Amino acid sequence: MRIRLLSVGKDRSGLYAPAVEEYAKRISRFVKFAVEEVPEARKAAGTPRARDEEGASLLDRIADGERVVLLDERGKEHESLAFARRVGAWVEGARDVTLVIGGSDGHGDAVRARAAETLCLSRLTLAHRLARLVLLEQIYRAFTILRGEPYHK
Fold first, then answer.
1. pLDDT above 80: residue 90
2. What proportions of the chain, in percent to the nearest 5, are helix, strand and coil?
3. Cβ(133)–Cβ(7) under 8 Å?
4. Staple 50 to which of 6, 41, 80, 89, CB 3.0 to 4.6 Å?
5. Residue 45's pLDDT band (boundaries 50, 70, 90)?
6. What's the CATH code of the domain at 94?
7. What's the total number of domains in the chain?
8. For the chain, how many helices (H) and strands (E)?
9. DSSP for 19-33, written as a single string
10. What is the mean pLDDT of the chain?
11. What is the mean pLDDT of residues 85-91?
12. How far apart are CA 99 and CA 114, in angstroms?
C-alpha cells in the first residue's frame, strides 16, 4: 500500500519545498509515500482547456486500481482526528491512494469523475504550493494520532 501526492506545477519560489521534503520523509516512516508533479498547462492558462490538459496529465499517472482522493474547496472538510480515521481507513483498505491537487484553474470533469472522494483542507483559498504542505503535515499528524505518538496535542 502506498500513498502518493500528485499535483500540478512546481514550487518555483523554493519556500515550501524543504518543508514538503521533510514531511514526506516523516510520512515515509509509516507508509510508502511519494510526491509527484505534472506540468502546468501554461499556454492554455485561465481557460477550460488548461483544466483538461492538466487533467489528462494527472489521469495518465493514475493506475486503474488506485483510490483517487481529490483536494478541492468543495470537498468534505475534516478536523484532524476525523482525518486520521480517514487515513487509517485507507491503510486498512490496503489499496494505493493518490491524493490529487489540481492547478490554479481547478480540476476538469474527467478528474472529478475518477475521484472516489473529495476533501477540503480549508474553506480559505490556499496557494497550491501551500496546500501541498498543509496536506502533508496533516497526513503526518494523522499517522502520529493513529500510532498514539505525542505530535498531536
1. yes
2. 45, 25, 35
3. no
4. 41
5. confident
6. 3.40.1280.10
7. 1
8. 5, 5
9. HHHHHHHHHTTTSEE
10. 93
11. 96
12. 12
